[in-house]
Amino acid sequence: MGVIVMDIRQLDYFVQAARLNSFSRAAESLYITQPTISKMIRNLEIELGADLFYREGKSIRLTDAGELLLVKAQNIVESFTSLSSELDSLRNLKQGHIRIGLPPMVGASFFPAVIGEFHRRYPEVTIRLHEDGAKKVEDDVESGLLDIGAIVLPVNRAKFHCFTFVEEKLQLLVPAGHRLDGAQKVQLKELAEEEFVLFREDFALHDRIISECVKAGFQPKVVYESSQWDLISRMVAAGMGIALLPETICRDMDRSRIAVIPLTEPVIPWQLGMIWRRDRYLSFAAREWIAFAMKVLGEL
């Protein structure tokens, strides 16, 4: 085999396709066309003399050669990205692109004012928001698909830097006229025979609530799951079940249709934090965002 010549774009395209298991999704994330990324990766395969992906209809998966290249390519792409970001920072360019992950409930409640004011201050910095459950956001920050993410704590402090910006408790929502309507407080074990409306499995509260119920001596009866807190509250109002939601969300409930009751024994904490990887270089724009968000959220 002769000398292999490849550029950083080929490796970047390959890494994105491998991470997303799709040429089309990788092309979308890179703001290029699918034929462009397909051609670039095919040229890379020709240069290497080996197929990097099994192509099965619209889906792809790595070959053994692809697995081997991915390990090396990730290091090369990250090193090149860090070099470029460091050079930009040295030139003090307040430009850039930030990828931020926000669970829907968190984004709607806490971040519109932060994002709006940041954009006014740094109009040339673009922010791409990704709405997913907290567990998916954490995974994507760890893998490098996101720069920063807001998640439900706790988090692995050995992997991530983190600052906490919300510390609340979960409260019980029941429909008006429910047997517990009017109660001053409720113990979790009193809900053993109730039907629950929960967030989906990719939301941290899904596992947290089920775990606490099991500790209290029962397996909750889950009748509906959703990614939207407002839909959950409407299901409760319609008498479909009960729900446990954070204090911030409960403040917006229609008290004529829903009763909000403090939950005790145990109190279930709801803490939010913003995370970023310890071992990755952050661009100037991302560092500015973190400092700005810490200040604004601290004031809120």
Automatic annotation (TrEMBL):
Domain of life: Bacteria
Keywords of this entry: DNA-binding, Transcription, Transcription regulation
InterPro entries per UniProt: HTH-type_LysR_regulators, LysR_HTH_N, LysR_subst-bd, WH-like_DNA-bd_sf, WH_DNA-bd_sf
Any GO CC annotation of this UniProt entry: cytosol
PROSITE patterns: HTH_LYSR
Keyword Transmembrane carried by entry: no
Gene Ontology MF terms: DNA binding; DNA-binding transcription factor activity
One Pfam short name: HTH_1
Domain HTH lysR-type residues, every copy: 6-63
PANTHER family: HTH-TYPE TRANSCRIPTIONAL REGULATOR YBHD, NITROGEN ASSIMILATION TRANSCRIPTIONAL ACTIVATOR-RELATED
Protein name per Swiss-Prot or TrEMBL: LysR family transcriptional regulator
